[in-house]
Amino acid sequence: MERGDALPRDLAGRRVVVSAGGTREALDPVRYLGNRSSGRQGYALARVAAQRGAHVTLVAAHTADLGEPAAVDVVRVGSALELRDAMRAATKGADAVVMAAAVADFRPTALAEHKIKKDGGDPPPLQLALNPDILVELVAGREPGQVVVGFAAETGDESGDPLHHGRAKLARKGCDLLVVNAVGDGRAFEVPDNSGWLLGADGSEQVLEPGSKALLASRVWDAVAARLG
Ligand code: CTP
Question: SUPFAM superfamilies annotated for this entry (predicted)?
Answer without folding.
Answer: CoaB-like
